[in-house]
Design a protein that fits this description.
The protein has eight helices and twelve strands. It is of the alpha/beta class. Bound molecules: calcium ion.
Length: 222
């Protein structure tokens, strides 16, 4: 799971990042909204920790922008702010924050709130997913096809999971590449993995359909 931390105060940013990294999260920190936007365009995180009082654009403006962009609207956001009045908290939550923590905060509480948020957002639908005869169980990272276990490489698994989480939705090539490979990848990498995945899925391979010039879609076998 990837977490972005937007916080201008270095000591707090380091503290948040250190606590999350120690708990197995991949974390990237930003001190202003410009660097944050540049990175989020390339790779979307699974959760964002957001400070309100920032130099330049403030956190609430950042939150509004995230929530109004379809690509990022669903990413959970936890505000961590020194603005602690009820009015501030309500304002943050009304703008679409998922949680609001006041400074100074306890590191353990921060980690457990992050985990709780990720559980409610992702666990429900990502623990076990089925499509036609394909089932993936994310807790054990296992895949079965017609109840027979299937071995996939790490990236093949991630790719299949992304399709299973978005059935019958066209996934753009760039979006898939960003999400699974980050920015240092080429379209060829994706093509090769799609080909391998189709072949391993056997008769369900054709459920991964090519949408010419756009990307791929997991679709019912017609
Ligand atoms: Ca600040």
């Amino acid at each position: 799971m990837l977490i972005y931390v937007l916080e201008d105060e270095e000591s707090i940013r380091e503290l948040e990042m250190y606590a999350l990294e120690k708990n197995g999260f991949e974390v990237q920190g930003f001190e202003n909204s410009q660097s944050f936007y540049k990175t989020i365009e390339k790779r979307a995180p699974d959760l964002i920790l957001l400070d309100i009082m920032l130099p330049g654009e403030d956190g609430l403006t950042v939150l509004k922008k995230i929530r109004s962009d379809a690509a990022f609207a669903k990413i959970p956001v936890i505000i961590i702010s020194a603005k602690t009045t009820e009015f501030d908290r309500v304002k943050g939550l009304d703008l679409g924050a998922d949680d609001y923590m006041c400074k100074p905060f306890g590191v353990m509480e921060l980690v457990s709130r992050v985990k709780a948020r990720l559980r409610t957002i992702y666990d429900g639908y990502s623990s076990e997913l089925s499509f036609s005869g394909i089932t993936i169980s994310d807790k054990t990272r296992t895949v079965t096809v017609d109840q027979i276990p299937l071995e996939l490489t790490y990236k093949e698994y991630e790719l299949l999971k992304m399709f299973m989480e978005n059935p019958q939705i066209v996934l753009q090539r760039d979006h898939i590449l960003d999400r699974i490979w980050g920015h240092d990848s080429t379209g060829r990498t994706l093509d090769v993995h799609i080909r391998m995945l189709r072949s391993k899925l056997g008769k369900y391979g054709k459920c991964i359909t090519t949408v010419r010039g756009v990307g791929y879609k997991l679709d019912k076998d017609k």
